[in-house]
Amino acid sequence: MLRAFLQRYRTMVLVSVFFFYLGCCLTINFTHIECATKASNNNDLETRDKSLSKAQYVVIIISSPNNEPKRDAIRTTWGNFVDNIFVENGEIIYKWNHTVISKQSQQNIVKLFFAVGRLGLSEIKAEKVANEQKRQKDILILDNIEDSYKNLSLKVLNTLSWISKNLKEMKYVIKCDDDSFVRIDLIVKDLVAFAPSMNAPELDKFVTLKEQQPTYKGLYWGYFNGHAKVYLSGKWQEKRWFLCDNYLPYALGGGYVISRSVVDYIAQNIDFLSYYNAEDVSMGVWTASLNAINRIHDVRFDTEWKSRGCDDNMLVRHKQTVNDMFQMYKTLVHSHGRKLCEIEEFERKTYYYNWNVLPSMCCKRN
Question: Most CB within 10 Å of its CB: which of 114, 127, 178, 333?
Answer without folding.
Answer: 114
